[in-house]
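Exercise 3.2. Students should predict the tertiary structure of the chain below and write it as structure tokens, then compare their answer with the key that follows.

Predict this chain's 3D structure.
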Amino acid sequence: MTLRGNNTQGAAQPPVPEAGAAPSPQTARPRILLADSGRISRGAVAESVRQQFDVREVADAEAAWQAVLLDASIRIVIAEVAAPSIRGFDLLARLRASKVQRIREMPAIALLERVNAADSQRVVALEATELVVGEPPAQDAASELLSRVRVLVDLANTRDALVESRTELESARTVDPDTELLTLPAFDKQVDKLLSYARRALLDLALICIRVELTMSHNEAWDGEIEQRMKLVGRALSASIRLEDLATRSDKTEFCVATQNNGMTDMLRFAARLRKVLENVDAAGPGVEVWTCIGVATLSEELRRGAVDLRAQAQRRAQMAQSSRSRRIMLGAVESGKAVGFDPRGETGSMDVNLALALIGSGRSAEVVAHLPRLLEQLNPLIRLIRQQQNVGASNPTPSAEREQ
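Answer key:
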């Protein structure tokens, strides 16, 4: 398309905004990228577009590509496609092959000087949004181009509004309004991020699964009532975890919490505290008894685990505790892969024998070493009793022992 006008090459042009910059408050107009050999920018088409839009001009396909990459405010690309100096066909191909959705879906108008079947077919094959063909004096082409640019800008704005609404909707879906806990997909996604950080920082992460059973004061409870009670339990859990912890309702009667593991002792105390909160008489409403079964899985058991695998392991252990009606928090033994239990009802804030045995069974003997003096104090009465019984047995041999002598 030959575009001629009364403008001269030396006519004053609006300043070109810096790459990536938003339109200034004075212009506040949609930004159009114009890739041409100089003829369009001096013609009627460019002038008509420039009157209503913020135009950025480049001289070839490579400059246009860099502008699109760096300037996210560009709404539409207009390019001469047949001009050898512009390589507009190459630009179209790169736009549609981009891995960036914004660039891949960007409206692109191809300009042809004259009707050419081969070039027109190539433009269609490269998925240009619009094709404008014009000959001198090109006034009709200018009007047609301006009209199409307006439509495409409106469509781009509508698309962006839909994307923004979808993003906001997805964000709203990350939290369950009934329990104020993360939805399960959002929980797994966030836990994966925490796992990546924990691996880099050489930290441990624990996933605590809590299975809940409700006992009503009356004999029969309809499903709707159980659901409402579970929502109350979820809210109680949401209010009891720390800001840095993550929690979700992973099943109808099950909740999961992810927490940074600063040592098995603290983590087990934390799990025991959650149990105490949920089994409070008000957690599910007055007159409702809450019973919890807890399973724990940690990143240090298997560093390659993702969020879903870690959660599944904790869920299996919670189910094991539930099937055996155990009040013990079920852990995993690193070497055997079998679950061992810990009863957290010992002395708060100290290492007791039950916890020490659970840690040793889980392959975490190193965490017990620092508490050996305290453990020895606890075990001394038992050791003395054992020695006394051994001495009594030695001084009073059994009849069978006497016959052997």
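Discussion points: The CA atoms of residues 224 and 230 lie 10 Å apart. DSSP finds 14 helices and 13 strands in the chain.
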